[in-house]
Design a protein that fits this description.
The chain is an alpha/beta fold. It has 3 helices and 6 strands, in the order βαβββααββ. A hairpin with a 7-residue loop joins strand 5 and strand 6 (106-109). It starts with 7 loop residues before the first strand and ends with a strand.
Amino acid sequence: MSGNYAPVISGIKIETKVGDTVSFASEYKLNTVFQVISFFEKEELENEISEIHYDNKSFYVYLRKGNVVKFSTLSDFENNDEYILNFVQTEDDRVIMELIEDNNPIYRKFN
């Protein structure tokens, strides 16, 4: 991450004991978070991320403009990179963009 900036990461529970390895499920979740951050860094948009949250079903990338990118799997995120870039750079109207594999994203406003 550039400078001293880092988004809040929440909802990922890692249960392990000293000397144990991290479980595959936790490793997958952390890898997904790091891949999302890397994508935003590559596009020089890392400062747009406020928080990345996981709720046991989906990941939510909260953006500083008040918008949210929601997805369930890393492939959902990776397969929609052009939609994500357009959304992050142009949308500023409190919208959730839900990424669904092999389909166009679903957009909905929220209060």
